[in-house]
Amino acid sequence: MPIRRDDRGRYVEVEPRRTEETAWLRCRECGELVFRRKLKESNHICQRCGAYFFLTAHERVTSLVDEDSFEPLGLGATSLDPLEFVDRRPYQERLEEAQAITGLNDAILVGRGTLDGCPLVLAVMDFRFIGGSMGQVVGDEIAAALERCAQEEVPFVLVVASGGARVQEGMVSLLQMAKTVAARNVLAEAAVPFIAVLTYPSSGGMLASVGSLADITIAEQGAMIGFAGPRVIEQTTGERLPAGFQTASFALEHGMVDQVVTRESLRAELTRALSVLQGGSHG
Description:
This protein is 35% helix and 19% strand.
């Protein structure tokens, strides 16, 4: 699925399969050819115009946690096909393709690590995997991570990059919203910190459930935040949306997020937030 940007977003659409085959990538913002190795050194930000290139789950993990500290904790499960769903292609075929492209079992990577020495459980979504949609496996992974954090009293950080519920799994996908909210309540009862990072995009069922229930919600600059796309909303309501609707700055102005940060400062802000939530015991 292509990555879509609004007028004020800074993300760049990259074809996943091509990403691993070429040494050069073209910035869709300024047209500059960027050497892949240099792009990694700059945290996947175009050095000419400052546009953000899309981060995979593995790249996001590398940019946030201490080196060599991440240990995957995934359940190792793969999504079922309860409806034997077929549109232009069978759902099972789409799953296998997404697994081959991303190297993930599903649209989320969960693991234990440290951030400036502070232990945490980090869950990062990957938009390349069927639009980062939440089906049964994603729901199971998030719920298991939340419950583990509650038991072990370890902070939980969720990085959202999701288009919403996975329609190919029907009602099963929608039930994940209730499941993850229930698990989040377990974490709240244990008084364990939860930080959500909203990136491009943060929408649909993820935003309508656990993605909106963190103790501190951080939006990365250029994030798209909203339940449905602007075109769908305008067609449904018949009204023109305000300028900048669903941008990170709009979400901040309307109280949906606590702060908007650049990608370069995200790690430092997470460290600061964890320190505040844990009473200054770290950082």
